[in-house]
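Holo model, aspartic acid. Inputs:
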Amino acid sequence: MSPIDYSRRVFCGQLTSADTGREVLLAGWVDAFRDHGGLLFIHLRDRSGIVQVVFSPEIGSTAVCQQAASLRAEYCIAVSGEVKPRLPGTENDHISTGTIEVMVKELAVLSESDALPFPISEKAMVAGAPSASLDHVTEDLRLQHRYLDLRRPSMRDHLIARHRIFQCARQFLDSRGFVEIETPMLTMSTPEGARDYLVPSRVHPGKFYALPQSPQLFKQLLMIGGMERYFQLARCFRDEDLRPNRQPEFTQIDIEASFIDEEFIYEMIEELAVRMFAVGGIELPRPFPRMTYAEAMDTTGSDRPDLRFGMRFVDVTDLFSQTQYSIFRQILQRGGRIKGINVQGQSDRLSKNVLQNEYAKEIVPSFGAKGMTWMRAEKGQLASNVVQFFSRGEQEALRARFGVADGDVLILIADPSHAVVTSALGQLRLHLANRLGLIPAGRFCPVWVTEFPLFEATEEGGVTSSHHPFTAPDRTDFDPRNVEELLALRSRAYDLVVNGEELGGGSIRINRRDLQRKIFDALGLSEEETMNRFGFFLRAFDFGAPPHGGLALGMDRTVSMILQTPSIREVIAFPKNRSAGCPLTGAPSTVKREQLAELGLLNLGGTDKLAGADTAENRVDHLSWVSRIGIAAGERAMMEEVLDQAEALASIATENAGKEEPIWGVVPVANRTRPGTRAQRSPLAETGQLLKSAPAVKGSYFKVASILE
Ligand code: ASP
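Output:
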């Protein structure tokens, strides 16, 4: 092929019948090929799409046709030729260019490809024919070759859609006067409830930056700095325990504004969400309903209520106040609650056997409740294994309260703890909805959850922030030492939940130093601790901090929901896998000693022991760990004795240091640890039995971990 003039290049996916007769230069990858004895068809793919190119001896030279015969999947090539309509009957309506093809005159192989670890092509060359599937490909293999995975049109589409959603958000926020500002990545710890990723400083040996869990403190400082409206597509880092659909690093649209209240946030974020979802063709219903935290917990058992389907909880505690049914009576005597759901019209699919043996015996206990009570409505009656214990009145009252019709199934959970009732019933509600297919596809139900408790109780009898400590309380006249009062406080926080997933959350913030101090007091942070951690931040409050508030939306999750992908990893170019590792680069990886030394990390912490380590660490365990040799329970007493003798010997050696002649040899052999016992070689050593379980043996030695070298 003559030198390629890329300025003439046109995009495969943009060709149409209107280009018929045009000479075009195309460049991309061989998506698929089909040899028709002399005629060779290729699907050529670039970022814009796919077009069929044809090598025919009537059009291209013999050399071109021969070269074409050697093309394989994912070769990177350029071709030039003429656009022609396809013959009737050979059109492919699965690709946008399916009515035309390009008759190739020239071909250049720009780069060859090895055989592929998994198929990339997603479009069959013949309309209707099946295309290769990734069903048997592990996600780690895809991530290891992510650059190939990204060539798959569906992955490409995800990333382009993500870009469009981000652009939409940027433009909208810009139009509302928000300014995009970057905040530091190397920073101080910000409390968001997770562990920090730490970055050691070479310039300040022994000191660390933290990667931001969120730009929370900086965005508030920007408000104090007078920026009034800020946003950022912020990368955040949280070292959390692994959970599905979490990534150690993730992207948030982080927003903060001054001189605003909750209504400003609700209106603006609704508009933003509606626009972003519209990019994916989804129309969110407006206005978004609002639910207090208490209401969400009471009726769905979750602070992330999924409102796509019914089965809201109904409290029936009062209906059983005089009950003869002993299980309920005992629970009510202990101050318990009884709540239930009506699974309408599902009795055909929830047999006695399923209700009793699966749900009552297995599934509900796994949700933390002792059991459940079920009743099926048949022929105007409630039927179950316990209904005979309920009075007529109780049965009538149940039917009325749940609005029962034949074919419904009532499920009740009773427990002395209200929290157990709501939590178990909430999990059961989701389980049944999924199992019975009660969640309508393509439905999106946003809801604002408001009035969260400001604090949660800790196991130590104190409190911790439910959101973060900068969230404004609903009132300020509380006593920071009165735990009961603290636990009754509500916060001015709000979460945006869609289909049972939290897309984001935020709050109106505290903007007065005395109130912030009071919150830290409540959290049990001393003045000194507060100043050490947040002194710089609190100081800013001394200079006219404006009222402000904001929110952050998790963008990986939002994009994944808009594109309806099975996991957030499908919308991230280079995600970590489920074990927080990167199969492509191998991160996280070990580093060289020199690097650690340069960072001052080798002797970090000196010989200081962590609090509690002394009691936790037994010297036998320590020795066992250092030597990587397991010690059986029966050997421990003997090991303790040997260690005592060794210590005694060491102290004799220390006392006598310098007084005695140094020993140059070890002959004759003496048993120093067991005086009076003659040293002898174990017969097991002779037979090789001794080293039988050693991890690696060389001659009559076994290898030890390098830590001892
Ligand atoms: N910083 C909070 C978070 O990341 C969001 C906010 O309060 O604006 O969850």
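The longest strand covers residues 23-36. Residues 357 and 363 are 9 Å apart (CA to CA).
Archived with the compound record.
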